[in-house]
Amino acid sequence: MTERSGLLDGDHSEAILAALRSAREQKSAVYIRAGGSKQHIIGRDCAATELDVSAHRGIVDYQPQELVIAARAGTPLSEIVTALAAENQCLPFEPPLFGGKATLGGTLACNLSGPGRPWRGSIRDMVLGVQMINGKCEQLNFGGKVMKNVAGYDVSRLQAGALGTLGVLTEISLKILPRPQKTLTLRYAMPADEAIETMNRCAGKPKPLSGAFWQDETLYLRLSGAASAVDSTALQWGGDTVENDEALWQELREQALPFFAGDEPLWRFSVQSSARLVADFGPMLIDWGGAQRWVRGDHARDQLNSAALDAGGHVSLFRGGDRESELQPPLNTAAQRLQQQLKKSFDPDGIVNPGRLYSWL
């Protein structure tokens, strides 16, 4: 059974609120769904009645001169990207669009950002404010719609990566940026260890680096910004210029490169950018200048956790595998208690996306 918030696109916050009230009264949990592009990635499977919020969509405020935009949570990212492109602006965190199905609310809930994340910031960094309905059926408003009005306890950014376990996002306001004047990609043949060292060395220089990833013994460095700065850096750094480089970074962003094809489990390491993974888990794709490493295959979780800790980070099961197991990194007692207290504060009856982030949440 699917609870629907409405049929026509627009403001359906009252219908969403009514559906949550009904669920709370009946002590029946709901799973928040809009585009459905991330239902089987990042989080655990959620056995609950679907609450369809896809009709709650539309850009409600766009001020190009102020570099801010606000939209309802069910708005497809593709619509926002199109609107921004008309003003020569962009979402700096380069979120995956997943064939046009990805929505603004789902992207914030999953804290998804693309190749430029280390240099341009994440979606979490760009959030100015949110409106939401929590598990107590309270309509809440945090932050603001312009940068000068953002103050107080930063509950807005708390929604990044919460996977909808704190409530239903209804509206989100974001900081945006102008599109770079010029973008160019350089390519180098080198092994992984040399690529990691090169990425970190280049990232430490005051140059217009906006992307750095490695796969199949090849390093790619993207330069974005003023044409003079891009051209000057390309001349200094050498390498081969990649033709049609926009398609390359789009395939990386959308996980459409051959590395991501197939049904094998996909693991995501978040580690120190200069770290070397001693354990051999087979083919790897290195992104974010070395801070994000992708691995495929059925590997023992203990071995993955150990390797991640040695590299100064953690590992999660991003896609595939057993989606009923714990997918996120294990938490210490204090962090687990804090998560439980947050859940109790926002959703004391546990009706919103139960178990989506952790089995005990």
Q: What's this entry about, in short?
A:
This protein is an alpha+beta fold and 361 residues long.
Question: According to CATH, what is the topology of the largest domain?
Answer: Uridine Diphospho-n-acetylenolpyruvylglucosamine Reductase, domain 3
Helical percent range? 25-40%
- The topology string of helices and strands comes to EHEEEEHEHHHEEHEEEHEEHEHEEEHEH
**Overall tally of domains:** 2
Number of helices: 11
Widest beta sheet: strand line-up? 4-5-9-7-8
CATH architecture of the largest domain: 2-Layer Sandwich
How many strands, which pairing sense, and closed or not: the largest β-sheet?
A: 5 strands, antiparallel
Unreliable parts: 1-7, 147-152
How many angstroms separate the termini?
23 Å
What class do helices, strands and sheet pairing give?
alpha+beta
Q: How many individual β-strands? A: 18
- Provide the residue-averaged pLDDT: 93
Please report the first level of CATH classification, the CATH class of the largest domain.
Alpha Beta
The gyration radius over C-alpha positions equals 21 Å
Strand content: 25-35%
| Principal-axes shape call | globular
